[in-house]
Amino acid sequence: MDDGRPIFQQIAEQLEARILDGSMPEESQVPSINELAAFHRINPATALKGVNLLVDSGVLYKRRGIGMFVAGGARERLLAARRDEFRDAYVRPLVERAATLGLTQGQVVDMIRKEAAT
Questions:
Q1: 3-state secondary structure 10-47
Q2: Are 61 and 22 a contacting pair, CB within 8 Å?
Q3: DSSP state of 61
Q4: What is the pLDDT of residue 89?
Q5: Nearest 5 degrees, angle CA 77-CA 82-CA 85?
């Protein structure tokens, strides 16, 4: 929890990672705000802000008086968002750079296949 990004964002990303790896399946209860705050030794308001990012995006939902739970379809929503980020960060610039070098789509695909094989 010290890579320069806001702590609340890191909390949200850690919860996302647990949903993606299956250790927090859909409809399972997530740790309470106080548990997250105690574990990470942070202010509960900071933990709440991280959890609320996921509530706002539909990944988590609140059951009044019970706690927070992983929403149905959360894993697929997270995967779709990560795929979009991957496309924007890597594929789009690759395609643009390939075009400036005069590479065809087939040449780029061949290069990717060769790299994947190693």
A1: HHHHHHHHHHHCCCCCCCCECCCHHHHHHHHCCCHHHH
A2: no
A3: E
A4: 98
A5: 130
**Across the strands, what pairs with 70?**
60
| Cα end-to-end span (Å), the chain | 34
| pTM confidence score | 0.82
Angle between helices 33-40 and 7-20 (to 10 degrees): 110
Which tokens in the block code for residue 47? 């933990």
- Provide the CB-side half-sphere exposure for 36 (13 A, CA): 26
Where do we find the tokens 């997530």?
30
Count CB-CB contacts under 10 A for residue 19: 24
Backbone angles phi, psi at 86, to 5 degrees: -60, -45
8: closest CA among 47, 55, 61? 47
- Enumerate the domain spans of the chain: 7-72, 75-117
Pick out the chain residues at pLDDT < 50: none
CATH number at 7-72: 1.10.10.10
